[in-house]
Amino acid sequence: MTSSQNHAENASPAADTVPHRTRIKLCGLGNAADVAHAVALGADAIGLVFYPPSSRALSIAQAVEMTRLVPPFVSIVGLFVNPTDEWFSEVTCNVPLTMLQFHGDETPEECEKLAGVAGLPWLRALRVSPDTQAADLVKSALNYSAASGLLFDTHVEGYGGGGKVFDWSLIPAELARRAVLSGGLSTQNVSDAIHRVRPYAVDVSSGIEVPGAKGVKDHARMAAFVRAVREADTR
Question: Considering just the CA atoms, what is the radius of gyration of the chain in Å?
Fold first, then answer.
């Protein structure tokens, strides 16, 4: 037995005992207090919306002020929906994003082009509708193979943030390691979602908002959501 084989065999049992830690992205944050609270809770990523029609959209000045509160190793994800080249360039040249999220109808070529201009990794949102099949998601994953991850969201009128859940069983096991699960997640259902899908990360927006106040984050709900994810991981 070679030394490398011996090392691999010895390392295997230890690797199997490493607990799974679901990464958490808190999205659609609207002010500095939201960011500070997300950081204090240990969120892995914050999501900032740069889609002007959205009630959660930020100006560049707002985003710059908010990102000053983000410490090292917390990702700053910029969400875009079919952006113009001018708007995309203005945002990415001024806001210190660390990752892009394309949530509109961008083609693989458009995503790669924009990400190349910004020099940043990117996520592709795949919207799951009632007639979506698992094979459709596999095909989309192949088309967007250059993406760092795939964000699975519910297909609603508009582009996300509708608080609706889709059929999680549609996500093939082979895509789970790249999956960022979104779409109607809340403190009440995130544990079940993690157990059923085993996604790399979860992404929540409407589920941590004040009921009936779209875009207004509830700090108690933010804390409860993070706690629910951590408890699901320990189980």
Answer: 18
